[in-house]
Amino acid sequence: MTALTTRLPARFLPVLATVVLFVITFGAGSLRYDGFASGQVIANLFIDNAFLIVLAAGMTFVILSGGIDLSVGSVVALSTMVTAAGLRAGWPVPLVIIAVLLIGSTLGLLMGVVIHKFDIQPFIVTLAGMFLARGLCFLISVESVSIKDATFREVATAVIELPGGVTITYNVVIALLVVLAALYVLHRTRFGRTVYAVGGNEQSALLMGLPTARTKVGVYVISGFCSALAGLLFSLYMLSGYGLHAVGMELDAIAAVVIGGTLLAGGLGYVLGSLAGVLVLGTIQTLISFQGTLSSWWTKIVIGALLLVFIAVQRGMIRGRRRQAAVAS
Amino acid sequence: MRGISLAFPGVKALQDVDFRLFPGEVHALMGENGAGKSTLIKTLTGVHTPDSGSVLLAGESVAFSSPGQAQQAGISTVYQEVNLCANLTVAENILLGREPRRFGGIDFPAMRKRAAEVLARIGVHIDPASVLETHPIAVQQLVAIARAIAVDCRVLVLDEPTSSLDAGEVAELFRIMRVLRDEGVAILFVSHFLDQVYEISDRMTVLRNGTLVGEHLTSELDRRDLISKMIGRELGALEAIEDASERHSVSGPVLVRAEGLGRRGAIAPFDLDIRAGEVVGLAGLLGSGRTELARLLFGADRADSGRLIVDGTPLHLRGPRSAIAAGIAFCSEDRKGEGLVADLSIRDNLVLAMQAARGWSRPVSRKVKDSLVEKYLTALDIRPANPDALVRTLSGGNQQKVLLARWLVTEPRLLILDEPTRGIDIGAKAQIQQLVTTLAAEGTAVLFISAELEEVVRIADRIVVLRDRHKIAELDGGSTIDEVVELIAGDPVPEEVAS
Amino acid sequence: MKNRLLWPILALVALLLLNLVVTPSFFALRIQDGHLYGGLVDVLKNGAPTLLIAIGMTLVIATRGIDLSVGAVAAIAAAVTCVHIGTSPDAGTALAGMAIALVLCAALGLWNGFLVAGLGIQPIIATLVLMTAGRGIAMLVTEGQIITVNNDAYRQVGAGFVVLPVSILISLAVLGLVALTTRKTALGMLIEAVGVNPEASRLAGVRSRTIIWTVYVFAAVCAGIAGLMISSNVSAADANSNGLWIEMDAILAVVIGGTSLAGGRYSLTGTLLGSLIIQTLTTTVYTIGVAAEVTLVFKAVVVITVCLIQSPKARAALSFRKVAVS
Amino acid sequence: ACGSGSGGAGSGTGNGSSGDTITMGFAQVGAESGWRTANTKSIQDEAKAAGIDLKFSDAQQKQENQIKAIRSYIQQKVDVIAFSPVVETGWDTVLLEAKRANIPVILTDRAIDSDDTSLYKTFLGSDFVEEGRKAGDWLVQNVNGPTNVVELQGTTGAAPAIDRKKGFEEKIAAKPDIKVVASQTGDFTRSGGKQVMEAFLKSQPKIDVVYAHNDDMGLGAIEAIKAAGKVPGKDIKIITVDAVKDGMTALANGEINFIVECNPLLGKQLMELAKKVVKGEEVPARVVTVEGTFTQEQAKAALPQRQY
Ligand SMILES: Nc1ncnc2c1ncn2[C@@H]1O[C@H](COP(=O)(O)OP(=O)(O)OP(=O)(O)O)[C@@H](O)[C@H]1O
Ligand SMILES: Nc1ncnc2c1ncn2[C@@H]1O[C@H](COP(=O)(O)OP(=O)(O)OP(=O)(O)O)[C@@H](O)[C@H]1O
Ligand SMILES: [Mg+2]
Ligand SMILES: [Mg+2]
Fold first, then answer.
1. Is the pLDDT of residue D129 over 70?
2. Is B399 touching ligand 2 by the criterion CB < 6 Å?
3. For all residues of chain A together, what is the average pLDDT?
4. Which of C251, B88, C121 is nearest to A263 (CA)?
5. What pLDDT, on the 0 to 100 scale, is given for residue B380?
């Protein structure tokens, strides 16, 4: 057996395991609940999590490089706030979009520069970024601001008909495009491979003459950009800006990435895994709302338990498969 | 490089060192462990910024602020420890940063093809799409070399590239170095193997304790002079070792016996007896399974067949702990990854194994610690002799000594040494060899693995030969190198030899 | 070592001085009903739970781990104890309740340890399970209600005084104990070894799994005690808000204290300073009257300034500029 | 399972899956306070009593989860959807979907900020601004001379916090003697309230009144005041909102001076409304829950019957 067939799948295993698990859970849900096995439920999974997909894609870059970005949730909130406030003030839509993306990327850039130049741990810097972004929301307005702009509303409510009567929103299309772009950048460009190298061993990457500085700052810019974009999608989803939007969403994004098999220490993982991770979290949510009889606390316990089942089974699958691979070679 | 000085906290690594490197020459940088060779190289390539002094490249003053810049200026470097990204593929490790592109993206098929070509140039045939960490450290070293020669460079820096390579690989490397030299590339070469240095270099610069001793043409400096320049005194110790290595056949009780021990994909089932007081050498080519054999004996990997008998009773190896408890010690060849705990001090690294065996609640007392540290710092001449220095800051050779000392501290009954002399200077190497002989005389069994066949033959009482992950023969200590080489490289069909 | 802690100390002092400037009475101490009363005392008292959790977190982080579940565990401890106490004013009932709660916390720590060391799941996700489910468990225990108790013995843990607040005395005692155990035994060194290079440690015969297991249990017990302090301070268990986001504060304290999230070498003194800095920051916000909507921006600015002050690189850059200007 | 697609024109019984029992989807915000838990319990109990099949989901304090839940109710074709929008914005898209699917919507707690009032049938709930006003009124009537007030705000940005502040300020503006000297968020929790109050006690030379946006923060403040050697309710007057049992007890004991009620028990009213809405009957666009205020004497009387 050649090394190619035994080795590469081993690295893809976590992703594969997540996808397989996702399919199994979905199957289980379909058997258990009426109306679960419809195309629209799957479509809703994407519609309801489009912003999270974008966030997770950005977060994948950061985690692959060995860092972490806690600011994403707040940047989403800030983006919704800027969008809503900007539109309320009568800015044209394109200007709002550009402003939001610029703010997100700039915040990312600032954090990246501080992390890299001053050698401060990403955890603190991005936590400060988290405070700052949310603080800025409240400076703009403490109250929630609704979006009344006609163009925005149109895009938000527009649906794309898929065969079989299933509908999706433009958000889904954008999210999937982001995933594709992330795939391309991570796997087909020097920057992407350097992200993996830095995450694998920063010192070595430096000695190999790779542009580690640019890469380390770059991942935070990407994450900032993705957060801002996710914020725009969130604005479309909610049609409002609010300082308390997306509280704790950074944890969802990190969880999705890690469930997708990415190593928190960096250097190993795939965007597709993160996508699968988001879908897993979304499915857990969907299962719970279909169940419909859980009290608030049982909801939490069941979410935790399902999460556990996911990661434990995933772990088991990876271990079992590794053993088989070892035996086969 | 002119008047280079560089100080780390507490250590003056370089003091006013001048160094010249000409196109079309192989220039050996010589010195004991910790003399400052690697540091000088890192100053050249922009890893460290010198406190004073200047670097001139083709007459122009340069100041690289990162290795990337040095690379762009045509300086290609293999650093001492394998500095690659183990999580990437072999091809990426070789070509990342100058990968072939197509439509703006990396062209992977072309990249794999290029990588395979470069690897073939140095005689390595591995799948370029495989992940680097699946390969043993020696292969990783070859990949690092491949990376360095994959580009057209003006200056090629090789910091102990041969420390875990065997003779065949080294010959390949030298062939290429000669080709490059003839093309006008300036090559800087560091090695503790004097034979290699004399074989390949045209000129050498000697460092001692961070200061320049002198620059000489290789042809004008004989070995004795070189050594005395390096260690700063007349050699005598060295000769003592050459004699100390008389062999004897040991007929004591069997200490460790392996019966049909094996692991699929790693090493075929083998039998092996090791007696107390015996030095058993393992010989074989790269990838012949020596390390795997050793790991099985230590329980670092779990065997899937056979059993291990210690002192006549079967030992159920559940992991390194049970091996250590049975008096087995294993000094790994991968000191960075599997050996040392880089961010701990010399002291902590020294007592780690001993402490682990005692459990956390029974600390080794400060007094015992200090006396142990004291003893081994002097016995192995570890520098700097500051027990609180972080192991990460030690020179490669000194790290190796710390690792060795860690296991000596546990007073093992069977000491497995996998490439213990890797990256160690000639004086220290002699010391270690002597140490092995002494230990054996005191009744310790030693399993000795080294890529340097000569060394194995010199100190082993018995030599076990491996090929293609099979044990194919056992020779007694009187054998000559030629006999071993014949077995190692010899017939392509192992069965014939074995029968 | 001393040098490393100098800057966090300076940051703390600067923050305290800021309070003094805005509120001149901030440093004032007086004896009130036989115990010390004043702004500084509040900082110590309210910082005690974070400090305690941060101590446990330090050890977890030193092994390259992280424990997100501490907040939930704190909530569970509070809930179990308060439900056990109910309306009883007995000291015995309170003690029994606390004992039960802490045993339960140890079990939860074992669970985390099992996921991390036993199954080999990444710590952040392994403890995320308990972070989510744990709060649910706490609410299950209290049935979503805030359980108010009226028990003097229990009140002592978080609101009591023996000259100084009992809670800070407990935290400092634990800190001392941990410092002593890790320094006087080999535990500290082994923890660091496991954190820096797990594989090398395994090959050196270190029982890395047992060690990892131990630190998670310890962190959970610390979280449990902290939960008791928090709830005892207001004599009520609120499953939903007890210890909410305290894991972030604790991690921040550890990191500000100079311990790297990448594992390995840790500093307990650093953690102490980190916790004090964070609590002082919170108290400062209240005392100097930062408007609620500016609070977060203020915190962000302070946190980043503290870190810049500590970063040798940032100081180098700054002093370089000064030299260049002058 | 029956109405396969055709379920169309004019059938007055709605589009539920089974003929007579009504299925209601209720998207709760979370269980962030005792108040909310009481609210949930009332809805669950009353649904059972009214024979309504309740699908309940807890959004863990996240609006997007609430939206997801509503979307899944639409998917499951429930007969009526009810939810408590904690924020007034951000509901248009999903409610439009509900409207398209012909599922009537009832808001509880709070209205939404939408120009399109056809998105929901009615809304049932308290008025947070009004609560703030009641608190302000009481203060204006019950103090004389210069009065320093400290305010313990709810979670920054949360609607009750904003509105209770707004209503309160509106009323006290009438009396320039009353000044809010410090205002900080205590996150609606007891420990938050206690910590903030401790700090206020040190930084403010004179505090006459505490206005807390909920009972819990008020209870925390009481602890802090006691620790400072002062008497809550006497040295420092306390006004809170909610009237949960613990708060009422403190009020009855004289440690709180005035509580504005915010009634969580709207299950019964909700179920009645739901039945009407499903039948297609007209309902008023706004149903206000019955809410009062409590002084210390009233609290003593009301306490024994307090359920939550
Ligand atoms: N990062 C560092 N921090 C502190 N001291 C260092 C650091 N790097 C190297 N040193 C010290 O500098 C001296 C020179 O080390 P260097 O690695 O250059 O030796 P070397 O000649 O390459 O030795 P070897 O043959 O063992 O590789 C040693 O004393 C070493 O301990
Ligand atoms: N020159 C080479 N070309 C291709 N593969 C090699 C080469 N050298 C080693 N390998 C690989 O090395 C692996 C086995 O390494 P192992 O650690 O058993 O070797 P070893 O005998 O201990 O040698 P050493 O310790 O000197 O590296 C196999 O995967 C083998 O394919
Ligand atoms: Mg060196
Ligand atoms: Mg080997």
1. yes
2. no
3. 89
4. C121
5. 86
**CATH numbers and ranges of domains, chain A:** 12-24+41-320 (1.10.3470)
Tell me how far apart the terminal alpha carbons of chain A are, to the nearest angstrom: 6
Q: What is the pLDDT of residues B275-332, one digit of tens each?
A: 998 999 999 888 888 999 999 999 999 888 999 999 889 988 888 999 999 999 999 9
Nearest-angstrom CA–CA distance, B252 and B260: 22
Task: Give C285's contacts in chain D (Cβ within 8 Å).
Answer: 184
Q: In chain D, positions 50-89, which contact chain A (CB-CB < 8 Å)?
A: 54-58, 60-65, 67-69, 71-73, 75-77, 87-89
The C-alpha atoms of residue A1 and residue A327 are separated, in whole angstroms, by 12
Give yes or no for residue B288 CB within 6 A of ligand 2. Answer: yes
Element (H or E) spanning D114, and its range? none
Residues 6+ apart with CB under 8 A from A317: A13, A17, A20, A21
The alpha helices in B251-387, defined as continuous H runs, are: 290-298, 320-325, 346-358, 366-379
Q: Please list the ranges in chain C whose pLDDT falls under 50.
A: 1, 322-326
CA distances from A72 to A220, A265, C128, C221 (A): 10, 19, 18, 31
A-facing residues of C in 111-140 (CB < 8 A) are 115, 119-126, 128-140
Burial class (CB in 10 A: 0-12, 13-18, 19+), C291: middle
ipTM of the complex: 0.90
**pLDDT per position as a tens digit, B217-233:** 999 888 888 888 887 76
pLDDT in tens, B355-395: 999 988 888 898 999 999 999 998 888 888 899 999 999 98
* Amino acid at the residue B185: V
Distance of CA A209 to the CA centre of its chain: 31
Contact (CB, 8 A) for A262 and A270: yes
List CB contacts of D297: < 8 A, sequence separation 6 or more. Answer: none
Question: Which pairing describes strands D209-212 and D147-153: parallel, antiparallel, or unpaired?
Answer: parallel
Q: How far is the CA of B333 from the centre of ligand 2 (A)?
A: 12
Q: Show the low-confidence residues of chain A (pLDDT under 70).
A: 1-10, 320-329
| HEC secondary structure over D216-253 | HHHHHHHHHHHHCCCCECCCEEEEEEECCHHHHHHHHC
C118 touches D at CB < 8 Å:
no
Bond preceding residue D205 cis, omega within 30 of 0: no
pTM of the model: 0.91
Dig out the tokens for D196 from the structure: 């903030």
- Residue B499: pLDDT band (50, 70, 90) is very low
What is the Å distance from ligand 4's center to B333 Cα? 6
- For the residues D278-304, what does the mean pLDDT come to? 88
Sheet hosting strand B313-315, strand order edge to edge: B267-275, B254-263, B305-310, B313-315
Q: Which residue in B120, B68, B66, B116 sits closest to B89, CA to CA? A: B116
